Amino acid sequence: MKKLMNVVIASVCILFPFCSATAAHASEHNQAEFQNDLKAIAKDTYSYFSDYTDPKTGLTSDTVRLPNGKVDEAKHTSPTNISMYLLSTISAQEMGFISRKEAVQRIQTTLHTLNSLKKWNGLFYNWYNTDGSLKTDWGQFISQVDNSWLTAGLMTAGQAYKEL
Question: 139 — alpha (psi -120 to 50), left (phi > 0) or beta?
Answer without folding.
Answer: left
